[in-house]
Amino acid sequence: MTSGARPAERLARAALTRVLEPGDEHGGRWLREFGATGLLALLTSPGAGRGRLTGVGEQRLDGYRARALAAVPERDLATVTRLGGRFVCPGDTEWPSQLDDLGDARPIGLWVRGSPDLRIWSLRSVAVVGARACTSYGAHMAASIGAGLAERGWVVTSGAAFGVDGAAHRGALASGGATVAVLACGVDVVYPRGHAELIGRIVEQGLVLAELAPGDHPTRSRFVLRNRVIAALTRGTVVVEAEYRSGSLVTARDAQRLGRFTMGVPGPVTSGLSAGVHELLRGEGVLVTDAAEVAELVGDIGELAPCRRGPVLPRDLLDPLSARVLEALPARGSAAGPEIARGAGTTPDEALARLYELHSLGFVERHGGGWQLAGPATPAVTMRRGGA
């Protein structure tokens, strides 16, 4: 599944996940210029990188060198293999090419647990992200969208955090669907600890992946940088509840920069947890309310959401002339046929014919020489649409 990259290249990239932080564009540029094996050699050979690894200070470069000398990629690869996982890197057939859109911020490689093919799953995936301290409304919407997308054959991708992330994963799992968790720590580290069971279920039924080597723990910056991977892996990002300062909005902005769809689920204007979403919707974000609308936006031709409209009233089924005749009747009292004809803009004979039709349908009543609207009883609706 991971064939493609040369063994030396794979080993060097595995080592570099211990050296470079996620999204390090200086490191990404060096990788592009020297290759993984060449960069590792420059970092581990005394004095070899001086004058060649540009863009950072000597103190920071010393930190890179110290971590490179301490890296034991064989041990990390053995650890992930023991967990039933693998290390996927550029050049492998399983590598999702959309990650290349990140340029020099592209992941060095991805540590993956779970049996499905990451590249295939990423071709039809949607990110669902949002507030950790979400409301019951946010959790309900995230679970509903996650389940609906899974039922339509979409992969639900999120970050396995509390709140919206967890609800989206659970919605997809409950529907027997596919879901991917992108972690800000090693794939063998359970974070948050309260999601140990959920992450275990995702490993069994989906995929868990991370840029960081096994055993690495999350930090605030790693959570933020993880979001660019979620955005790049998917066709679009749905934000369900987010404050103005929210990591979910970082994911949405990353998606916008990458040319992906950005969507938001509206909430009460009085809720601070919806303020960030509403700000997104005032810009480039698209308002969505369920999985059908998400699939219509990010999906292929023909994946249309059902048409939505209010209830069909009996008078909606009238043809245009009958509707005009009915509207010409006074709200109170009665009117003669010629008067109604003038109001409807038709002849007295045509108006009389339509009045009798409307009488048979229960819309009007005749009293003496005049016509008036019928009482509150519901008119018959068995007429054919668009005609008398």
How much strand content do the residues show? 5-15%
Q: Terminal Cα separation, in Å?
A: 66 Å
Query: How is the main sheet built?
Result: 9 strands, mixed
| Physical arrangement of strands within the biggest beta sheet | 1-2-6-5-4-3-7-8-9
Q: In CATH's first tier, which class of the largest domain applies? A: Alpha Beta
What's the helix count? 15
Radius of gyration: 31 Å
Average pLDDT across residues?
A: 91
Assembly classification: single chain
Indicate the structural class.
alpha/beta
What fold name goes in the CATH topology slot of the largest domain? Rossmann fold
Number of domains: 3
Second-tier CATH architecture of the largest domain: 3-Layer(aba) Sandwich
**Which stretches are poorly predicted, pLDDT < 50 over at least 5 residues?**
382-388
Give helix % range. 40-55%
How would you summarize this macromolecular structure in one to three sentences?
By secondary structure, this protein is an alpha/beta fold. The protein has helices at 7-16, 25-44, 58-70, 73-82, 118-122, 136-151, 164-174, 196-205, 220-233, 247-257, 272-282, 291-298, 320-328, 337-344, 348-360; strands spanning 86-88, 110-113, 125-130, 155-158, 179-183, 207-210, 236-240, 261-265, 286-287, 335-336, 364-367, 370-373. Strand 5 (179-183), helix 8 (196-205) and strand 6 form a beta-alpha-beta unit.
